[in-house]
Amino acid sequence: xxxxxxVAHRGASAERAxxxxxxxxxxxxxxADALECDVRxxxxxxxxxxxxxRVDRTSTGRGVxxxxxxxxxxxxxxxxxxxxxxxxxxxxxFEPRASPVGGASQRRILTFDELLGLVRAxxxxxxxxxxxKHPVRYGGLVEAKLTAALARHGISAPAHKDDSPxxxxxxxxxxxxxxxxxxxxxxxxxxxxxxxxxxRAGELPRWADLAGPSVRLLRRDxxxxxxxxxxxxxxxxxxxxxxxxxxxxxxxxxxxxxxxxPGATRARLAGS
Length: 272
Ligand code: G3P
Ligand code: CA
Known about the structure:
The protein contains eleven helices and nine strands. With 272 residues, the chain is of the alpha/beta class. The longest helix has 12 residues, at 141-152.
């Protein structure tokens, strides 16, 4: 993989409600090279794009994703934000919105199939970085369903990893290894916020194609991406929103820059 690419984290999620069609369409309009999504499974076995374990923060409903059916989730509005603190410090960039934007189709839950369809329908190459959550509980079910979805779209065996329209990610080594076993030609990212001694030296496990450090980690160790690159591994860094962090990624040679602000980040990387 060559050149720096902007990955729209949950879509253009600083401007639109995360993981909605509206957020992804804005990201594409802003020229994002790739989209990022989190994937969970509903009670009736559908893959949906949602970050939290519960729907409370990001929708008009309440409850745990794995205990709700897709039908029930489809009736919720995911662009009418609730005012609860997000899960992680990285999410503190999000501001609850007073009023939702866009029509009903832009505000409801997206299935993974729908998002993949959107990516595949673009007239230019766009990648999808898909992150699986809580993989241990399901013992490989989510990864198997993701692999089946790629097969349905005819993209589970790209001729070259560089050209793969989909990249699979997880903080879980077990999940990344399962992806590798299920679809060896699809690139994988091992996400992390702390690095082992081996990773700090630039060594990744063979089943992970890319390293996925947080920007917090890169701030502490700006040479990490170069050491990984010296051993043939590209870097995906998250979540990169302010000007100093974008500049850090540019200088550090980060290959994929995941941001909630794809338009501004793209302009900054281009030096405009
Ligand atoms: O892109 C990786 C990043 O999204 C991981 O953190 O919590 O935003 O899914 P989180
Ligand atoms: Ca994510």
